[in-house]
UniProtKB/TrEMBL annotation:
Domain Radical SAM core: 127-339
Protein name per UniProt: Lysine 2,3-aminomutase
Requisite cofactors: pyridoxal 5'-phosphate; [4Fe-4S] cluster
Pfam families attached to this UniProt entry: LAM_C, Radical_SAM
Region (Disordered) location: 1-22
InterPro entries: Aldolase_TIM, LAM_C_dom, Lys_aminomutase/Glu_NH3_mut, rSAM, rSAM_sf
Keyword entries, A-Z: 4Fe-4S, Iron, Iron-sulfur, Isomerase, Metal-binding, Pyridoxal phosphate, S-adenosyl-L-methionine
KW Iron (keyword) present: yes
Length: 403
């Protein structure tokens, strides 16, 4: 156990979800509300259940009906309690309740937008980059995000990996010494039982060439009560384990979410965030800045801001590339560097991620480079006379390093 730690600055006195909880789930006891399995059992999974809690717009009702064969609905009571029942553009609502546009597949949209199935040597493994792999552990989530680009998996039908598939995934990593980083994803790995999760983390920890593990999860956002002390201790035992979570709007950074993230960090598990840029949901520099600041206050580091993938049924949420660049330009220099995520485009068809940033170079010369700064003023950087950048000590270091 950890010694008690003081709360970090500015914790709100009363959970933001409390009002929503009281009006939507008045009968839930405190013990039930803090039990993640209760939330899983009481998740809203169809139109009839949803209509008990939210007065749907005609577009949403048709959206639920028309996407019923295409992608699941699932909203934890906790996440539902954050919803604005009066506004269809509420970010919680837009991320969890489908609209009709989601049922339309547009030209150019792909079932497998990142071309993962071409680089999937085992059921559990996507190996696209030289030194790291994605380990797909299961197909279930605490909330099914309307912007999910891995919906070919999360729509069901791939189920939790069998012991045999998991064994083969681990065997693949053992046979590939170039793999030094394993990113466990799905679905949401934190929906696995701790025993199951340990069956994955323990053998990975034993593989000498695996230097680090990342776990991609939306649990801190959608089911924060799942982050128990016992889960945090489990992760810490297999350090270095990084948790990569997925907040998209400051409305999601509630006291419960904060407690989940701070519990991880307090146990020595760093937490990073990958947000997805979505039109009319967070496609504004003010919102992304507020999100980044809210995350840093709870010790979560903004990592990527993703341009929406060309997944089927997501076009209505896509922003023009220029919007992301404009947002980064409005952050860089204007606020803490740690609050500026990398703007990433995962290239359709399997090209992998590239990052974009505004161009600050005005002129590139042999003797100097001319930049503009964040205020638009120009500055000259003189080039050095000598340009040999080889590092003579490196051959020594490579053969004689300690440890
Ligand atoms: C995003 C991704 C990774 C990790 O990329 P980083 O840039 O290292 O965060 C690894 N494998 C696949 C297939 C990915 O899509
Ligand atoms: S939590 Fe992740 S994998 Fe699951 S539905 Fe949301 S985006 Fe998709």
């Amino acid at each position: 156990m950890l010694p008690p730690v003081p709360p970090s600055k500015g914790a709100p006195a009363r959970p933001a979800s409390e009002a929503g909880r009281r009006s939507l789930f008045p009968d839930a006891t405190d013990a039930e509300w803090s039990d993640w399995r209760w939330h899983q059992r009481h998740a809203v999974r169809n139109l009839a259940q949803l209509e008990k809690y939210v007065l749907l717009t005609p577009d949403e009702r048709a959206g639920v009906q028309e996407t019923s064969e295409l992608f699941r609905i699932g909203i934890s009571p906790y996440y539902l309690s954050l919803i604005d029942r009066d506004h269809p553009f509420c970010p919680i609502r837009m991320q969890s309740i489908p609209v009709r546009a989601e049922a339309r597949i547009r030209p150019g949209e792909l079932a497998d937008p990142l071309g993962e199935d071409k680089t999937r040597p085992e059921e559990a493994i996507v190996h696209k980059y030289p030194d790291r792999v994605l380990f797909l552990a299961l197909d279930t989530c605490s909330v099914y995000c309307r912007h999910c680009t891995r919906r070919r998996i999360t729509k069901g039908g791939e189920a939790e990996l069998t012991k045999e598939q998991m064994r083969r995934g681990l065997e693949y990593i053992r046979r590939h010494p170039e793999v030094r980083d394993v990113l466990i994803s799905g679905g949401d790995p934190f929906l696995l039982s701790e025993e199951r999760l340990e069956e994955l983390l323990a053998p990975l920890h034993e593989i000498p060439h695996v230097e680090m593990v990342r776990i991609g999860t939306r649990v801190p956002v959608c089911l924060p009560m799942r982050v128990t002390d016992s889960l945090a201790r489990l992760l810490r035992r297999y350090a270095p384990v990084y948790v990569v979570t997925h907040f998209n709007h400051p409305k999601e950074v509630t006291p419960e979410a904060r407690e989940a993230c701070e519990r991880l960090v307090d146990h020595g598990v760093p937490v990073e965030n990958q947000a997805v840029l979505m039109r009319q949901l967070n496609s504004d520099a003010r919102i992304i800045r507020e999100l980044s600041h809210a995350l840093l206050r709870i010790r979560v580091r903004p990592y990527y801001l993703h341009q929406m993938d060309v997944a089927q049924g997501c076009e209505h949420l896509r922003t023009p590339i220029s919007k992301g660049m404009e947002i980064i330009q409005q952050l860089r220099g204007h606020t803490t560097g740690l609050a500026v995520p990398h703007l990433a485009v995962d290239l359709p068809g399997g090209g992998g991620k590239v990052t974009l940033q505004p161009d600050y170079v005005l002129e590139r010369g042999e003797h100097e480079t001319v930049f503009r700064n964040y205020k638009g003023e120009s500055y000259v950087y003189p080039e050095p006379e000598q340009t040999d950048c080889s590092c003579p000590y490196d051959s020594v270091w490579q053969t004689r390093r300690w440890g």
